[in-house]
Every structure is written in structure tokens, then in C-alpha cells.
Amino acid sequence: MPEVFNTRIPYFNTHIKIEVPLSNFSGIFQSKVEEYQPGISEAALVKHALDNPIASLPLEKLSEGKNNIVIITSDHTRPVPSRIIMPFILERIRRGNPQAVITILVATGFHRPSTKQELINKLGDKIVREENIVMHFSNHAQDMIFLDKLPSGGDLLINKIAAKADLLIAEGFIEPHFFAGFSGGRKSVLPGIASTATVLANHCSEFIQSPYARTGVLDNNPMHTDMIFAANTAKLKFIVNVVINSDKKIIHAVAGDHETAHRSGCDFLANLCRIPASGADIVISSNGGSPLDQNIYQAVKGMTAAEASCNCDGTIIMIAACNDGHGGESFYRNMAEAATPAEVLRKVEKIPRNKTIPDQWEFQILARILERHRVIMVTDMCSPELIKNMHMEHAVTFEEALSMAMKEKGKNASVAVIPDGVSVIVDPK
Predict the structure, then answer these.
(1) Which of 339, 337, 338, 336 lies closest to 385 in space, CA to CA?
(2) Does residue 326 carry a catalytic annotation?
(3) Which terminus of the chain is more solvent-facing, meaning fewer CB atoms within 10 Å of its CB: N or C?
(4) What is the tally of structural domains in the chain?
(5) Residue of 76, 177, 258, 262 marked active site
(6) What is the pTM of this model?
(7) pLDDT-derived band of residue 76, with 50, 70 and 90 as boundaries?
């Protein structure tokens, strides 16, 4: 019996076991975040960051004389451990200015508003009960104010509450992001509290097409340039950002200037999660299980790690439950109604910056991947017809997918494994 490499890949709320013949196996590539041990508690990490702000005065000093202070917080879709972070922020503000009027503004971006229970789960009952919390609605024009023109040419419209603050600060977390480079920092403003029109201008086809709009890349990334401009124009003065592991535990924290502190946090994370491009014929990836593998829309993120690692015309085996289906009607229709992925890309390239349509960036990236690679989705929780309509192939089991891939690429095909494609940054080949 041939020797095999075996491991477990996150899938929905469990894992699936995979086996790859050793004669084909070219390596497993994963983040070292899980191995990192900070040596102190989560609370101590946040306190240390606030005690040692980067390129900024301490938060309590910034709060002096500022009567209208706004804290941007992430919504329920982001696993930011706000229960730990927010009490420290509030205490530091009130230490510097006990009379300050504080508003917590929930950065929903394009998402639905958080429910009260979701806020309690995130912030804790005491903060929800005692603090002034306001939800951002990107499509409420009456809530927005024009600040300037973005470098992209779009209007920079943000929530009035933030624009009128004497002191604007934000909390968030840093993870690899498949076109903004990294989450956190400036993203609290754009897309966090920006208008729909502003977000669409930033997510235009030209910017998504840029070779710099990739995971782990900030320099020359046009989307990041827009976001930095928005944060500076909105006068985002101070951030508290954390890096978390798969258990959603804080392993690192930074505080201070939104650009310099954010860069420091990104550098820390990049040192742990950079992996070399494998240059394999077949690359196996996932979205790290639930909740990120709940639909095809989200699964595109994990595919980009495989895309960056796979040989041209190679095969990507994407393991993702996709139990909620496609994840976006515009996303699905624009893929399914096109004859080929190339047709999708031709259509997108003709859409001006100020005419970006919802989900355009997601179907543009998926079409880009499919132009160069065959994608086999492994799931027993999603309609095979839906997957095939979107120009991908379906397999119920990993064994079936690997057999399909090997049949095309040959018995000597090299196979690489990226257990969690969302958690890594692939260095260019």
C-alpha cells in the first residue's frame, strides 16, 4: 500500500481527514499564529499596548478637553474581542476627561445592523446597558456628510457622528485581507462607516485588477491608498487593534497612530503567517471552517491563497461547506448568467469606478481565478447545480475531488496543502 500524507482540514463545525500520496505531496503550508504564545494574558496585552502607544500621545492625554468622543467598533460579523478591549478604552478616556460625551459607533459597512443580543455577546451587558451605541447604515444618505474626493475619484461620504467628533478613535483586529492587504486600522472608516457610494467607488474593477490589491500587500495598493486618505480626512486619531488566533484569543495588541500602529501590527502578523508559493499542480485550500465557509462568496477568500500558490492552469480543490449557498444574488447572477469567466471579466472591465455594482469585486476575483485555474468545490451541504452554474466543479468527498484533479493533471502531479487559506499570506513565486 502506497505511503500517504494525512491531515485534517476545517470544514463547517468539524474537520475532514485528507490523504495525499507521498509521491505527489509537495508540502503543507500554514500560519504559525497557533504556535505563538504571548506569555501574558489578553487583558495584559491590551493594557501594555495602551501604556505604550505607537507614534501617539496616550489616549487619556488625547481625551483631555475633548467633549464629543466617538469610538468606532466592529459589528457582529467580526470576531473582535471587544469585551476585553472596550472597557480599557472607556476607562482611559474617562481618566483623561471624566465629563466626555462618548458615542460607540458600530461599523457595519455593508452588513445588516447588529441585534441587541449580538451587541451584548460582543461588548458585554454592562456596556450595552450603560453606553450610547449607534448603528451605522451605509445606505442612509441623511446620515452621511461629504468630506472630500477620494484618490479613486469617488466622493468620500462618512457618518456624520464620526465627522463631528472632537476625537475619533477605533478598535478592531488585524488579519490578512484578500484585496485590502490586511484588515484593521483605516478600514474602520472605509468601508466601516462610509456610505454605500464611497465603498463602491473604492471597490472598483480597476483597483481589484491591480496586482497590488492582494493579500498582505499595502504598498502601492490603490484600495489601501483610498482607505488611508479616508481615515486621515475623517481625523481618525487613535486605534487599538489586536491579532487573534483561531480560538479568537488575543496574542498581540497595538495602540496609537492609525497608520503607524497598524503597520506595526501587520508586520507582527506577517512574520507569523507568510508562506512560500508552492508552485504545485494541485493546491488544496479551505476557509478555516465555520463561519467563513458558509457560502461561496466567502470561500473566494480561501481560494485566493491557492491561486497565489498554484501553477498556471493548475487545479484548486476548495473544501468549504457553503451550507448557505452562493452568499449574494448579484454575485451568483453575474457568474451564472455569463457563458465563461472571461465574459465576466470583459464586462467588469467596462464598468467605470463610479458605477461599481454590489458584489462586483467578489465575482471579479472569482472570475480571475477561474480564468487561470480549474476549481473543484468539496461539499456535501451545497447544491451541485449551483456550483456548476458558477463555472466550478463539485465533489461530495475529498477523495472524489483528488481523483478528478489527478486524472487531469496526471499521476505525477504535485499536490500542496493549505489547511486554512484565509489565515496565510503567500509570497509571490
Answers:
(1) 336
(2) no
(3) N
(4) 2
(5) 177
(6) 0.91
(7) confident
